[in-house]
Structure prediction request, 451 residues.
Amino acid sequence: MSSRIGGPLVAREEQKLVEGLLAGNEDAVRALYARFARPIFTLGLRLLGSAEAAEELTQDVFLTAWRKAARFDPSRGRLSTWLMTIAHNLAVDRLRRETGVTRPHLVLMDELPEIPSSDEEEPLMERDAAMHAIESLSDAEKRLLARVYFGGLTAREISEADGVPLGTVKTRLRTALIKVRRANQDKERP
Amino acid sequence: MSCVEVREHLPEYSMGVLPEHEIAAVERHLAWCAGCRKEAAEFGSAAATFAFALEPAAVPRGLADRVVARVRQVAGTSGTARRTRATAALAVAAMVTVAALGWGAAMAGRAEKFADQAALAEARRAAALQQFDRVLNEIKQLVPSVTLSQDETHLGRLAPTAGRAGGGAVLQLVSPTLLDFAIVLVNGLPRGDVAAMPYRVTLENAAGDVLKVGRISELDANGGADVYRQYEEQDLSGYTKVLVRDASGDVVLSGTVDQSG
Prediction:
């Protein structure tokens, strides 16, 4: 199972990796792990607050991806998005279960703890594109999206906390996401 | 919910903070509205960007091996028997092909709860079954190393019991040379009925012997799911009755596999 290093996967490569995952092909699982374990683990660390929970999340993401692999459709979205959505949803579900509330109380950490050195990691190609997309936002938009995605705040809660009309918060959220979407589309495969 | 209302919720939905009762309403809409589904996917992609923008943390040593071991364990590929690998390859090919054919969109199980749409639902199930039939032909191209007789693969379809919604289909491999397997796909089960889950899928023969296929504890936006089981020592001959029961044991979907052809 080979995949090019240094560039995004094309749809056919993504489909082959997912087929390999479904078959339990070790090369495919390792290729996916090498590309995506680090951002998944990082997200888990950021949201769940401990390396142990982040590791459990990482394993759960790959198992969930295996279970859902037959339904992955590269024409409807990138593999990276699919996996990170699984990761975010699992983390949020876990927080909901553990806190017993209808919305998660996500941990927003200023500094991530040091973890012993890693293995089998490749450079994170998606990070450059993500940083580029984030740069398209104003500081206020970055803070707003971070409060929602990492802080777990709803538009209504932000509206009440900031004394801003709910409709305004929703419009700002939508505008910010559209900016990121456009920046992403600039980087999309043809 | 109208498209305007749904799109107002999509930013929060895509970022995982929409309240539960609104998630259900949004997902019911997304199940049939391609335009809103497209926007939801694009916002989901934008939201995922934030995860990638985080300063990367170091992953613990050895996690790769643990992930590989767990996936291989659940995928049933820890053994080395050629038969097992061949069967797994066939199932993979079938499921990938099912996905590529847009199976979920074709099932239209939602329509069955409306009596006046029963005929439409029936027609769509028949169309879906035809698509499943195409799977069998494509398997040979996807896994050319495996010889598969058309006589070894059998199809069946699932219909809702009285007062229930949904539908489904079954693909069985009953082979003298490969490990038998069953794939059951369902669609249109009520997503909002949390108490009904997990659903349990079983096969039965004329003597009343029961074989488990799997459990369904999560439904997609179409009320759909798929379960797959490969039988190491069990011959599926005669196990033609397929039942899907809810958590209280009531049969919600049933059907028969035609093993004669």
Q: What stands out?
A: DSSP finds eight helices and no strands in chain A. The helical segments of chain A are 11-22, 26-48, 51-68, 79-99, 125-135, 139-149, 155-162, 166-187. The CA atoms of residues 44 and 54 of chain A lie 4 Å apart. Chain A touches chain B through 83 residues (CB under 8 Å).
